[in-house]
Write a structure and sequence with these properties.
Helices cover 77% and strands 0% of the residues.
Length: 650
């Protein structure tokens, strides 16, 4: 109903203003309108940005090649490829804005191109008109949604953070209670929790749409997600250490560490309830911070106990970061919070390059077909081919199925638009009757978007219904024009389907293997060189790779990536300690076999370094901490030797 009201309001405003193409305002209102307020407002904001950028780009392109058809069309294809590249690098609504910048330029180019693709020089006024119409649609959708939905994204996100934090804390404490006896069960749980933490990203973006204050503090929420991943990495190290220790020693050391864990985080059934964690996050943060200090000062007589204490501190520090984000969501929004810097993470350059290449090929092929055949609606086919291939490219392995659903939905919409346009509208005279007529399609299609079944098919039905119907102040009932237009839209969508079949996206298995290979390459470089120099730099790279790990990745591969993350962090910390005591050369010699895929040799040399540290009582507590890091690295290399033995890529 909100979708229908938004489209009707946008069309009414453009009719009243007597704009040339009111349907672009209605289309924008339909696209922006989402089931939740935050998502709608966020998408509307990014749609505005993408529209302006695309309009400016096509004006500049037309100014550069006002009378040159070939360079203009090639430039248009290159711009579409660049936008597909950026859309794959970004995520969520920011990716949508990049995609929109690409096909907004194609929309304006479509309006100014003739039968064989020559620009007519009207790009500036067309850009002004299209941008105005699109902005009207965005504003109308925002007005309707803001007046009918109070928003709940912030509370939903807080519930997700509280639930994940509580479950990680509760199950981690359970690992200490069991002293590693349930290693296989906790391993499967950690792998599933990694997937759930990664899935927080869209919910965070939706919450940003409802609150400008949250957008200002976006680094806090990014650090909260990173904290949960760091907690899972620390939990993995503790579980492995306990599982590999003798039962008696594991029991004794686990009890010593468990005594420092706050009572609020102990394994009790009521602690799993998110509402308890949402009630007073600052109190829990204080408890975690106090426990981290206690664990750092814990007197440890063995490297294994030092390892358990330090990794437990990492878990609690990560949970504290998550609770800091939770406090921002559910307590006083004006409480001072350290913001930090939100960084753009680029885990892999190959998928964006593949998508950019496919987009360029599709647009150029559509242009050549249009010019050769001189089909009057060839520009429209090129436009919708560009829309589908740019918009769906970031979906990776789901792109082909989404393109098929997009084409099917577009075909069904053409049928419905023909029925409404030629059987219903000619008998109506008022805007109210017109609104009821389009509601026959928009209301069911809008309801279809809000449920999980075939959502990808209902989205193009909503987005393409108004352009196919093409309502105007002075209605035209030209059946030939309608069917040519519908054929151009369906043909363009079909070309996108064909492109995803002929130039398929990288498979989930290949992307997962590549992410692991890139991670190991960085780890080997870390062994042989000083880059990155701090644990934060290394962690930032790993968080970016964990965030884009495909859902289809095997649980073992998630565990291997998490293990590589932990090993890299431990190596950086160990290198800093060894340099202070002039042991850097010994560490380099111990780690050198790792770069050649010889984890067993590396473990043996690390054992020798551990013995050398054990004979240096003059080094104090830092020697014990270095030995604990050696133990953590050795255990990870032993557990995932098949992964680490691949060696430095040649």
């Amino acid at each position: 109903m909100r979708l229908w009201a938004s489209v009707c309001l946008a069309l009414y405003a453009t009719y009243w203003l007597e704009l040339d193409n009111p349907f672009w305002a209605g289309t924008s209102a339909a696209i922006v309108c989402q089931p939740h307020l935050g998502a709608s407002l966020r998408k509307g904001w990014y749609r505005l940005i993408g529209t302006v950028v695309g309009a400016v780009a096509i004006v500049v392109l037309t100014a550069c090649f006002p009378q040159d058809r070939a360079p203009f069309l090639v430039g248009l294809a290159l711009w579409g490829a660049a936008c597909a590249f950026v859309a794959t690098l970004l995520r969520n609504f920011a990716a949508y804005a990049a995609a929109l910048a690409g096909y907004t330029a194609a929309i304006i180019a479509y309006d100014q191109l003739g039968a064989t693709g020559g620009p007519n020089g009207q790009a500036f006024m067309l850009a002004i008109n299209r941008a105005s119409e699109i902005c009207i649609g965005i504003v109308c959708a925002g007005v309707v949604l803001a007046g009918t939905d109070l928003g709940g994204a912030r509370r939903r996100l807080g519930t997700l953070f509280a639930g994940l934090s509580a479950e990680i804390a509760w199950r981690f404490a359970g690992t200490l209670v069991a002293a590693g006896a349930e290693f296989e069960e906790t391993q499967a749980t950690r792998r599933e929790l990694v997937r759930r933490v990664i899935a927080l990203d869209p919910a965070i973006d939706e919450a940003f749409g409802e609150s400008s204050q949250l957008r200002y503090y976006s680094p806090v929420l990014q650090r909260a997600v990173d904290g949960l991943l760091a907690a899972l990495a620390g939990w993995r190290a503790v579980a492995v250490a306990l599982a590999r220790s003798p039962e008696g020693r594991a029991r004794q050391e686990a009890d010593a560490v468990l005594a420092e864990v706050p009572v609020e985080l102990r394994p009790r059934p009521e602690q799993m309830e998110p509402t308890r964690w949402m009630a007073d996050p600052p109190r829990l943060i204080g408890a975690c911070d106090a426990a981290v200090r206690s664990l750092a000062a814990l007197s440890a007589g063995t490297p294994s106990l030092r390892l358990l204490a330090d990794q437990t501190a990492e878990v609690l520090a990560g949970i504290a970061d998550a609770l800091n984000g939770l406090a921002l969501l559910v307590t006083d929004p004006f409480r001072p919070v350290a913001r930090g810097v939100r960084r753009l993470r680029i885990p892999d350059w190959l998928p964006p390059l593949v998508n950019a290449g496919r987009t360029f090929v599709v647009i150029v092929a559509a242009q050549l077909f249009w010019i050769v055949t001189e089909w009057p609606n060839g520009a429209q086919a090129m436009l919708f081919a560009a829309i589908a291939v740019i918009l769906l490219a970031p979906r990776a392995d789901q792109a082909y199925a989404a393109a098929v659903s997009f084409t099917v939905g577009t075909g069904l919409t053409a049928v419905f638009a023909a029925i409404i346009g030629f059987a219903v509208l000619p008998n109506l005279e008022t805007f109210a009757a017109f609104s009821l007529a389009i509601g026959l399609v928009l209301v069911p299609a809008g309801a279809g978007i809000a449920q999980p079944w075939q959502t990808a098919m209902f989205i193009p039905m909503v987005a393409n219904f108004v352009p196919l119907l093409a309502p105007a102040n002075q209605e035209s009932y030209d059946t030939q024009q309608f069917y040519n237009s519908a054929l151009g839209i369906v043909a363009g969508s079909g070309a996108a389907v064909l492109s995803f079949r002929l130039l398929p996206p990288l498979s989930p298995a290949f992307r997962t293997r590549r992410l692991l290979a890139l991670t190991l390459r960085d780890l080997y470089r870390l062994v042989t060189g000083p880059v990155p120099r701090t644990p934060d730099d290394w962690a930032d790279r790993m968080y970016g790779r964990l965030a884009v790990l495909p859902d289809a990745a095997q649980p073992l591969q998630r565990s291997q990536l998490l293990a590589a993350f932990s090993v890299g962090t431990d190596i950086i910390q160990l290198r800093h300690i060894c340099k202070r005591f002039d042991l850097g050369s010994g560490l380099d010699a111990a780690l050198e076999p790792l770069a050649h895929g010889q984890s067993v040799t590396a473990v043996g040399r690390l054992a020798s370094l551990d013995q050398a540290l054990a004979t240096r009582p003059d080094l104090g507590p830092e020697a014990l901490r270095a030995r604990s890091l050696i133990l953590a690295i050795s255990e990870a290399l032993t557990e995932h030797s098949a992964c680490f033995d691949t060696g430095m890529p040649r």
